Amino acid sequence: MVVGDISTGTDVLVIGAGPGGYVAAIRAGQLDMDVTLVDEDAWGGTCLNYGCIPSKALITATDVAERARNAEHMGVHADPAIDMAGMVNWKDDVVDQLTGGVEKLCKANGVQLMEGRAEFAGENSARIVHGGEGQGAETVEFEHAVIATGSRPIEIPGFEFDDEPVLDSRQALALDSVPNRLVVVGAGYIGMELATVLAKAGSDVTVVEMLDEVLPQYDEDLARPVKKRAEELGIDFHFGQTAREWYEHGDGIRVVTEPADAEAAKAEADGGAAQEFDADKVLVAVGRQPVTDTLNLEAAGLEPNEDGFLETDDRARTDLEHVFAIGDVAGEPMLAHKASKEGQVAAEVIAGEPAALDYQAVPAAVFTDPEIGTVGMTEEEASETGFDPVVGEFPFRASGRALTTDHDEGFVRIVADDESGFVLGGQVVGPEASELIAEIGLAIEMGATLEDVVATIHTHPTLSEAVMEAAENALGHAIHTLNR
Amino acid sequence: MAYEFELPDVGEGVAEGELVRWLVEPGDTVSEDQPLAEVETDKAMVEVPSPVDGTVKELRAEEGEMVPVGDVFVVLQPEGEVDEDELEESEREPATADEDADTGTPESVEAGGPSTDGQEGSVPEGRVFAAPSARRLARELGVDIAAVEGTGPSGRATQQDVRAHAEAAEGPAGDDTATAEAAAEGGADGTEPAGGAGGVEAAGETGSGPDIAGGGQQVESADRERTVAAPATRRVADELGVDIDAVPATEQRDGEAFVTEAAVRQYAQAQQEAQAAQAETAIQTAEGERVERAPYRGVRKTIGDAMAESKYSAPHVTHHETAVADELVEARGRLKEEAEERGFRLTYMPFVMKAVVAALKQHPVLNAELDEEAGEILKKKYYNIGVATATDAGLMVPVVEDVDDKGMLQISSEVNELVQKARDRSISREELQGSTFTITNFGAIGGEYATPILNYPEVAILGMGELKQRPVVEDGEVVAKWTLPLSISIDHRVVDGADVARFAETFIEYVENPELLLLE
């Protein structure tokens, strides 16, 4: 023990206060355990402070402007001006309200909050190093630990987030003015969400993607409406390119890319296929990596796998029976709601309850324009799994509600087992896809059949009717679309 | 493509059948219409013929198992078609988009995976259709949700299904099983393992866990404080309900006991077998050897259900009377020799049947049926006579159709044939249906009078006692005469006592004067 250390004991030490960690802590508190929640930065973690929530706030705000600007056909004439600082202030208010709520909930459930960086000192002890010079450290002895350190953006060589013109997603969400020209490296969901926000805010946006498509992890027919809309917003796409370097140029910067393909790159070495983009800022959004390097895992006898994740079983346990890992640090998909579920399960398992990670599907949403929501299996995955899938679709252009929201692009697709009718998955692209996917998720978890979905009365006129119609289409008797 | 043969509706509207005996084995070559298996439905034993020429790939049911109609019970490889499984094994082609969907059936998917013994159906491995609440309950009760038979829509497992499964698994040795589950659950949560649970003797220091009554089998167990194992191994242990600290260690790592997945599986199986053996012993101990339990199903249950329906639906009245049958005995004695020369074995039954039909024609209300729903009495103008027959499996009633149109010898040969078929259980369902009146000849075994139960929805049944010489008073003298005791039950809703008395008089007239049958 270091001189000056204070030593405390706890039943459950939760490391990281994101949507995995704080949920685990609250549930552990509800189950009458003595819980300590440590975070070195902010209650609510990346999601509430620098990710999901701030981005959604800015998406909403820029949508308001964008819609007002393009509503002449609805008889609305407006010319909105964007005050980025004002927008960010509003976003901060939302974040403060939520993080304040998390803090209150933790305290109300008897969770001991501790600020600092936690690192293991042994199998049953950790040191909490407080931020700032001379703030000291203390040791916490724990019965159980829950590692919920999350992830951080991946840096690419030559583009360091410490450099002023180079932004990670967190910095992009805290801009005080709209950059005139923005290069976005990466057309995954973070890159596409932020590219859309800034394009709507008035930036001239160029997206550079190593692969050949936007949102490469999604089916082409889901990504297509997103790309089409992005192009309408003036976003420029360059595929098969990786970012090589940037340098100051004129009153801004110049970003140089090269072909991602090795052979093409070789050809390019003789001069040729390199591209240059002039910009004011460059946002790098090429993915996120788990955070384990701050934890001194060796002291506990743990080791991440070659992808950097901590491997866990279906009770969220690591190789050590009393140490759990949840959320981004425990593996893909890196999604807040998966982290929360794992946090609840970890807390319940620690309390001796028969909880387990037995979910059938993890939904995912992309808040682009239009949105994408997916859950469960695609048709192809269902076939590969051994089902004989049947698929139903419903286009939003046939939905009265979609037309009245002035957003009629996209469709709902539902995948089910032909023989039993069990709903296996759904893919939605279009207005409120992120909300609509919840119904299909419930159907999957409940073991509902297409008939069950069809027999459920859906409110008219709402977008949710599209889910029912897609299920009817799968059964071959949709009312408002032709059955294939 | 393999032919998945579903159990056909072997009778009329039969829901399931017991697979009594397989007549083929996997690998056997079969020709179309060759019997594959004997299936006992609630009406009869039938042989299920092969629909194709080919080979038997897989038997999907055990002998003694109840197979629902429509369930695949055997997989055949039709002749001249390539076995895709073999093709896959030999060529190992990568899956392509246009590949036949059937190659992705659960069987082939599971081929390389862990064994899923005892699980059938079209749901691929690892996929469970049950609400989260039911899944959680399953964990709570230590039930493998994948093994629960669902009764919800499309076989979805409900909370009730999980509870029923848990109760069934507990069985008569319930307490012990529950303890084992609790121990497994406890161990999974990192608490102290409960040694010796569920009849598994803990081989601790003392090596003397409680020997469960008559269990006989013991499984070697450990009782460690901690165990080194991969997360995957712990997962398997959880799934199998095994306390990992009780699994005998296969090796040491860093001075700690290390357990492999194989060891967990082996231990789980041994534990299961021990529990099963113990459960069996427990039944025997409880009831001793004084009671033998036999299943109430198949033909036995059908008989029972039919009897209950008849007796509870129709108010029975039985009319008793005796016919003096000297003339009948004499006539049959004369004709028997004549029949034998023509190759027939003539019994009394054709005479009785002819007499019954003659009497029914004069008293049609006994050849009737009550249609309660329509509020009508159906008087039938055809005469199909059922002949109650004792078989090894129980009572069956083969039917001779249109007795009024048939000659004595034809009736005789038909009855003999049908009775034989019923006894060797080769009778078809159709041959057991459609009677309008039934005769039961319990007297063939012995006895005078009885109270026969109607072959519902018929409204009358004739029971015959033993035909033998009895003392009869004739002209004030007691003389020995051949007599036939009669017991005629009727449905009193349709037939009155007077009706049956008159019917009996007519019938007896024919029996006592068999030459009257010539007029029929």
CATH overall fold name of the largest domain in chain B:
Chloramphenicol Acetyltransferase
Pairing-aware structural class of the strands and helices of chain A? alpha/beta
How many separate domains of chain B? 3
Give the full name of the CATH homologous superfamily of the largest domain in chain B.
Chloramphenicol acetyltransferase-like domain
Number of strands of chain B: 20
The main pleated sheet of chain B reads as:
8 strands, mixed
What is the CATH C-level name of the largest domain in chain A?
Alpha Beta
- Which percent bin holds the helix content of chain A? 25-40%
CATH architecture of the largest domain in chain B: 2-Layer Sandwich
Task: Classify the beta-strand content of chain B into a percent band.
Answer: 15-25%
Structure description:
The complex is a heterodimer of chains A (about 475) and B (about 525). Chain A is of the alpha/beta class and about 475 residues long. Chain A folds into 3 domains: about 5-150 and about 290-350, FAD/NAD(P)-binding domain, CATH 3.50.50.60; about 165-285, FAD/NAD(P)-binding domain, CATH 3.50.50; about 365-475, Enolase-like, domain 1 (2-Layer Sandwich), CATH 3.30.390. Chain A has helices spanning about 20-30, 45-50, 50-70, 85-110, 170, 190-200, 220-230, 260-270, 295-300, 335-350, 380-385, 400-405, 435-445, 450-455, 465-475; strands at about 5-15, 35-40, 110-115, 115-120, 125-130, 135-145, 150-155, 165, 180-185, 205-210, 235-240, 240-250, 250-260, 275-280, 280-285, 290, 325, 365, 370-375, 390-395, 410-415, 425-430. In chain A, strands 1, 2, 3, 4, 5, 6 and 17 form a 7-stranded mixed beta sheet that branches. A 5-stranded parallel beta sheet of chain A has the order 8-15-9-10-11. Chain A has a 5-stranded antiparallel beta sheet with strand order 18-19-22-21-20, sandwiched between helices. In chain A, helix 1 runs parallel beside helix 10 (about 335-350) and helix 3 (about 50-70) runs antiparallel to helix 4 (about 85-110). Chain B has about 525 residues and is an alpha+beta fold. Chain B folds into 3 domains: about 5-120, OB fold (Dihydrolipoamide Acetyltransferase, E2P) (Beta Barrel); about 170-285, no CATH class; about 300-520, Chloramphenicol acetyltransferase-like domain (Chloramphenicol Acetyltransferase, 2-Layer Sandwich), CATH 3.30.559.10. Helix content of chain B is about 30%, strand content about 20%. Chain B contains 12 helices and 20 strands. In chain B, strands 11, 14, 15, 16, 17, 18, 19 and 20 form an 8-stranded mixed beta sheet that branches. A 4-stranded antiparallel beta sheet of chain B has the order 1-8-6-3, with no helix packed on it. In chain B, strands 5-4-2-7 form a 4-stranded antiparallel beta sheet, with no helix packed on it. In chain B, a hairpin with a 2-residue loop joins strand 9 (about 250-255) and strand 10 (about 255-260). In chain B, helix 10 crosses helix 11 and helix 10 (about 350-360) crosses helix 12. The model of chain B is unreliable at about 85-120 and about 170-215 (pLDDT under 50). The chains are: A alpha/beta (about 475), B alpha+beta (about 525). The interface between A and B is large, with 36 and 40 residues.
